[in-house]
Specification:
With 275 residues, this protein is an alpha/beta fold. It is globular, with a radius of gyration of 19 Å. The two termini are 20 Å apart.
């Protein structure tokens, strides 16, 4: 059983958001939970909010609902869909106010992975939201299919990368990765554990056992971000799962935490769990 039912997804109505939306909707269906979609706009009046992504046509395309289904049919799936609209200039601030009033158990965020000058000239939303909300966060890079198909709703989770160190302890990431694979019905999964700490021995942890699942451990030395991104590319992983402590030094404030730097370069979704 996944440890979340309340899922929150900020949306800008763009095509680039479709992958993140698909993950948010499919996870909501799987856990029979509550999905809140929020849009922040500085100018457009609230009457245009009906242009927001329609969930019933999406579920019909996936074969979960019949064509022409009603709102009542959505409720029969055991899920709730809520929409929130804010007219504000500060997108991050408006979303954080909403999350303070109505906390979530999982954030699903679309990321645009800007670097260098482009990063300085665009307001970052995903990273500050995840850092300030202290919620589990699934980052889905724009232009990446991820482990949920936006077209069919089908899921594919066969390779998972889990960075491990003595601090923060990796057990929450290991458990959540296993719970997710189980909920998705993934029969054959390779969990690749990458030990990034300076200690000679990896931390002690428990590996959930399941027929068809395998666990490998790789010891890495050097820059942890480079190792995680290289291992993710080499193993062609479907998901990275990692625990995070946020910013713990001035260097982190300037460059970003390890998790944030991985988010900027990963070509697959990343599930971050606050330590």
């Amino acid at each position: 059983m996944l440890p979340f039912r309340r899922i929150f997804h900020p949306t800008d109505f763009s095509a680039a958001d479709s992958a993140a939306l698909a993950h948010a909707v499919q996870l909501t269906v799987l856990v029979q939970g509550e999905l809140t979609m929020m849009h922040v706009d500085p100018t457009i009046g609230s009457e245009y909010f009906e242009d927001s992504p329609r969930i019933r046509p999406l579920l019909a395309r996936w074969g979960i609902l019949p064509e022409g289904s009603s709102k009542e049919d959505v409720g029969k799936l055991g899920i709730q869909i809520k929409r929130v609209r804010a007219v504000a200039d500060d997108t991050t601030g408006a979303i954080l106010r909403q999350l303070t009033a109505y906390p979530t158990e999982l954030l699903v965020l679309s990321t645009h992975q800007r670097e260098g000058f482009a990063r300085l000239t665009h307001q970052a939303v995903a990273e500050p939201l995840a850092r300030s909300s202290h919620a589990r966060t699934l980052f889905v890079p724009a232009g990446v299919d991820g482990f949920v198909s936006a077209e069919t709703g089908s899921t594919n989770l066969t390779r998972v990368l889990i960075p491990i160190a003595h601090k923060p302890h990796p057990q929450p990431a290991i458990d959540l990765a296993a719970d997710l694979a189980s909920t998705l019905g993934s029969k054959k999964v390779l969990f690749e554990l990458v030990h990034l700490g300076t200690e000679a021995d990896p931390p002690k942890f428990t590996k959930p056992e399941h027929p068809g699942w395998s666990w490998d451990t790789l010891v890495a030395k050097g820059d942890p971000v480079e190792w995680i991104l290289a291992a993710g590319a080499d193993f062609d992983v479907d998901l990275i799962v990692m625990t995070t402590e946020g910013h713990t030094s001035l260097f982190d404030l300037l460059r970003g935490s390890t998790t944030e730097r991985v988010v900027r370069g990963a070509r697959c979704p990343l599930l971050a769990i606050p330590a």
